[in-house]
Amino acid sequence: MQIIHDFKIPVKKYSELGQNNNFPHPEECPHCHDKLLKHGFYHRYVITIDNQCFWIQIRRYKCQHCKKTVSILPAFLFPRFQRSLNYIVCCMKEYLLQKKLLLYKRAVYFYLHRFTCNIPGLIAFFRDKYHSLIPFKLSRIKKATKLIKMIWSSDAQILSKEYQDHFNQCFMAL
Q1: Can you tell me the distance from the alpha carbon of 65 to that of 169, in angstroms, rounded to the nearest whole number?
Q2: Which domain holds residue 114?
Q3: Domain check: are 65 and 134 in the same one?
Q4: Which pLDDT tens digit goes with each residue over 66-100?
Q5: What is the DSSP secondary-structure string of 36-95?
Q6: How many domains does the chain have?
Q7: Is the pTM of this model over 0.85?
Q8: Strand 69-74 relative to strand 53-63: parallel, antiparallel, unpaired?
Q9: Are residues 10 and 32 in the same domain?
Q10: Last residue of a domain, one of 74, 101, 127
Q11: Residue 31 and residue 137: Cα distance in Å, rounded?
Q12: Number of CB atoms found within 10 A of residue 60's CB
């Protein structure tokens, strides 16, 4: 399981700090509510919107009772995606609004497919959290365009964390 945490620092600073980042220590296991112990780090890459690649460390905890692990994922990432959250949202926005490809077509279509599959959840989230009304009668692409504009105009990292906390999944998950 992954817990999204906003470190309030850019990717470059997070990468430079490495294991010295201010990692939160969850009070209890989200599975069985027992104590979590530090369980090292794992590494992954993140590609930012300016096409820079950073090697980052992700803090991991392990429950002493159920033996499940929990990772603290920075808010600038989607779980299981290498490109940063802002990069992915920007690619979808550019394609939906201007038909401009910032990545190769297959990657943009992959992101759009994931995003459009989660439109009902995103609409429910915006209605619950922000009381925003998005008409159901719009086409799927028009709904996606409206939602991408809403995400881009707000802080995408905070919104992604709030969505994760609300539904216990990423809005790009299938």
Answers
A1: 24
A2: 85-167
A3: no
A4: 999 999 999 999 988 999 999 999 999 999 999 99
A5: EEEEEEEEEEEE-TTS-EEEEEEEEEEETTT--EEEEEETTB-TT-SBBHHHHHHHHHHH
A6: 2
A7: yes
A8: antiparallel
A9: yes
A10: 74
A11: 39
A12: 17
